[in-house]
Design goal:
The chain has 13 helices and 5 strands. With 322 residues, it is mainly alpha-helical. Among the domains are: 126 residues, no CATH class; 81 residues. Strand 1, helix 1 and strand 2 form a beta-alpha-beta unit. Helix 1 packs antiparallel against helix 2, helix 2 packs antiparallel against helix 13 and helix 5 packs across helix 8. The chain starts with a strand and ends in a 13-residue tail after the last helix. 35% of the residues are buried.
């Protein structure tokens, strides 16, 4: 029995971060296809040449024992005839060009993603493909939880700057006060009453009276926040605060919460990164729009790379059953 042990090529699954570019890994898998095919053919030829027992006795080839170790550590073993070994070798050689073509397409996508990453860094905000690969791999429920976490962070940031929030409420126009009231109405009677107070504040002429009423309104908003639990409740409150808070970019961030969550996703920890959220909140609206466009592009580029990777596999998994 001839023996050969081949290490199975890595399965190419979507949204998995890698130290090496995916294109290099796919190219390596194609090379493995060809070298494994060559080795199987050599073993098949050797087995045929030694298929008869020697006249003087001794070992001879009755087949080829083929084993491999999968990426999860499982050892698979097969006993093959020379014909079966050549059949597998033919499949390996036939599949290698598919991997070559995929590697070429993925390389182009990775080059484009690298250019996007450079542009993001030029804005002073680091964002890598690995972050988006991790983000895309999250279950939808996990993304929703991260979005909720980011809303809480932004709302907390607004309340941390109570003076700025009170100033924003004191300077509300009647139109913006009405928008806040409309969003707060979902909180029931407490929200409706607070909305009425905000509209009253917008009509107050005296500076001192307006400031005192605004400070009281901040406390009312905090009370509403404490009773908010559902995700849509947080949406309403974040949007309402965005009408009053003068923190740079706050309104943009709460309106673009899905993008904010992806942009502030911390790959290593699997959470919202507060330092990145702070960095986002400190950026000007024009920079945020440019960053949103670039990071959204990077997310799409990563998704396209994943789409290329999803249907392909290592040659060890292209074999028929034997």
């Amino acid at each position: 029995m001839c023996k050969v042990a081949l290490v199975a090529a890595v399965l190419f699954t979507a949204a998995t971060a890698a130290a090496d570019p995916w294109s290099s890994r796919v190219t390596g898998a194609a090379d493995s296809c060809r070298s494994d095919a060559s080795q199987l053919r050599a073993l098949a030829a050797d087995c045929r040449a030694r298929s008869e027992p020697p006249p003087e006795g001794g070992e001879y080839c009755t087949g080829i024992h083929y084993s491999e170790t999968t990426p999860d550590g499982q050892v698979l073993e097969y006993d093959l005839s020379p014909d079966q070994a050549e059949q597998i070798a033919d499949q390996f050689d036939a599949y290698a060009p598919t991997l070559d073509a995929a590697a070429s397409r993925i390389s182009e996508l990775e080059d484009a993603a690298a250019t996007t990453e450079d542009k993001i860094r030029e804005l002073g905000f680091d964002k890598a493909r690995e972050d988006y690969e991790g983000w895309l791999a999250l279950a939808e429920s996990s993304r929703e939880e991260l979005a909720k976490e980011s809303k809480k962070f932004l709302i907390g940031r607004a309340f941390d700057s109570a003076g700025a929030l009170a100033d924003g409420i004191a300077s509300l126009s009647r139109g913006r006060a009405q928008k806040m009231a409309d969003r707060l109405a979902r909180y029931g009677d407490a929200g409706v009453e607070l909305g009425k107070e905000l509209k009253r504040i917008a009509r107050i002429a005296g500076r001192r009276e307006k400031a005192e009423a605004a400070a009281a309104a901040v406390e009312g908003l905090k009370a509403l926040y404490e009773q908010a639990s559902a995700d849509d409740d947080l949406d309403a409150l974040a949007s309402a605060l965005g009408e009053a808070v003068e923190l740079e970019g706050f309104g943009f961030l709460v309106d673009e919460i899905k993008w904010t969550t992806a942009a502030a996703y911390a790959y290593a920890a699997g959470t919202i990164a507060s330092d990145r959220m702070d960095q986002l909140a400190a950026m000007q609206a024009m920079q945020l729009r440019a960053l949103k466009s670039l990071t959204s592009l990077l997310e799409r580029q990563v998704a396209r790379i994943d789409a290329e990777l999803e249907p392909i596999h290592g040659c060890s998994y292209a074999r028929p059953s034997v």
